[in-house]
Amino acid sequence: MKRRDAVKNLSLVPIAGSLMCRPESLALKANDEKPTSKIDYFEELGITRVINANVTMTFLSGSLMLPEVLDAINSTAHDFANMHELQDKVGAKIAEMLKCEAAMVTSGAACAMVLATAACITGDDLEKTKLLPNLPGPRPEVIMQKSHRYVFDQAITTTGAKIIEVDDADEMEKAINENTVMALFFNAAEKSTITHEEFVARAKKKNVPSFIDAAADVPPVENLFKFQKMGFDLVTFSGGKMIRGPQSAGLLFGRKDLIEAAKLNHSPHEAPIGRPMKVNKEEIFGMYAALKAYLGRDHKKEWQEWLSRVESIKSVVESVAGVTGETYINPGPANAFPSLHVSWNESKLKANPKEIYEALKNGTPSIVTNVAKKDGKQLLNVGVVLLREEQVSIVAERLKQILQDHLS
Ligand SMILES: *Cc1c(COP(=O)(O)O)cnc(C)c1O
């Protein structure tokens, strides 16, 4: 089998599936397999290995990279490349894959937010790119719905811009003035007082670029195409969440002139605001490989696999008296996938969900779940989408054992 074909075949292998037919040339092993390095760096440095039975979280190192991504990183690490050419060509390819004008790889969605805002402020003026965040004159303004304010909008104000809050579409239109540079939509906001369509329409009417942050909003895969179709000028997704690219990578895509301006505000240029947000060559190749694998995956099959993982953990923990499991499908837009809700009769099993959560986390191996709420009652939520295949039964057995230990 030629190597190219081997890599192509790999993208057809479900993430949890067997990789037995994997060629020897792919030296780096992914999460689906045992590591091959002679040095155990976790051991050498005393770092605790964590089983993530929750969702992608930056503090838990995001996602685990796919075999294709690790191969892209390893196989491109041995030659130099011109970073402008790499970013341009990978961007053009990603734009073709996502059916939009232009794209680039950033160091995460938060970086994409800084670069998008900077691009809307500076355009192609190189002098201005050197002055952010201290551009002379009135502060640039970014429009947001009041109900969309969130922790990540810090990335917007990093550029020197200030956020102008609005409550409805008419207010939005009225708030737009000569200092307005962009309008930001937070896709996973709990409440929107302006719909996506209305937001885009008003921004277009006033000739202000619209930007949507959909960082954690795949699956479904369709979301990668949805917002450019709606008319948003710029879109970002994290690379290191469910697309399973490098955790330090992300996608920014949309209007060509704005992507070109965003590149001027990024490394490898020496002085713009994005210089400290460098993406390395291997991450750019890795992000491309991750997206290609993600788009090529059998998403229905993967969903079924997640459901069967939930079922298998449920059947093990339900063997403990008084314990019930229930399949939960998060409605999204962020983290829209199945997990297992576990609850129990606390008069029989003397522990609350937080205590079971702690016991799992502090045990060996360390398993991180989360405590969720349903109808005002706390329960334990067990995530399955980030588990390696052999970890499904480990999680089930550990949880069963801990629950059993608390039976009175
Ligand atoms: C995760 C996330 C970000 C930040 O993304 P990174 O890729 O970690 O930089 C921004 N916005 C939202 C809504 C997110 O969920």
Structure description:
InterPro entries: PyrdxlP-dep_Trfase (IPR015424), PyrdxlP-dep_Trfase_major (IPR015421), SelA-like (IPR018319). This protein has 408 residues and is of the alpha/beta class. The protein folds into two domains: 29-63 and 298-405, Alpha-Beta Complex (Aspartate Aminotransferase, domain 1), CATH 3.90.1150.180; 67-295, Type I PLP-dependent aspartate aminotransferase-like (Major domain) (Aspartate Aminotransferase, domain 2). It has 15 helices and 13 strands. The chain has helices at 3-10, 41-45, 67-76, 83-97, 109-122, 126-131, 154-157, 169-175, 196-205, 223-230, 256-264, 281-296, 299-317, 353-362, 391-405; strands spanning 50-52, 102-106, 141-145, 162-166, 180-186, 210-213, 234-238, 250-254, 323-329, 338-344, 366-368, 370-374, 377-383. The strands form three sheets. Strands 2-8-7-6-5-3-4 form a seven-stranded mixed sheet, with helices on both faces. Strand 6 (210-213), helix 10 (223-230) and strand 7 (234-238) form a beta-alpha-beta unit. The model is unreliable at 1-31 (pLDDT under 50). Bound molecules: pyridoxal-5'-phosphate (PLP).
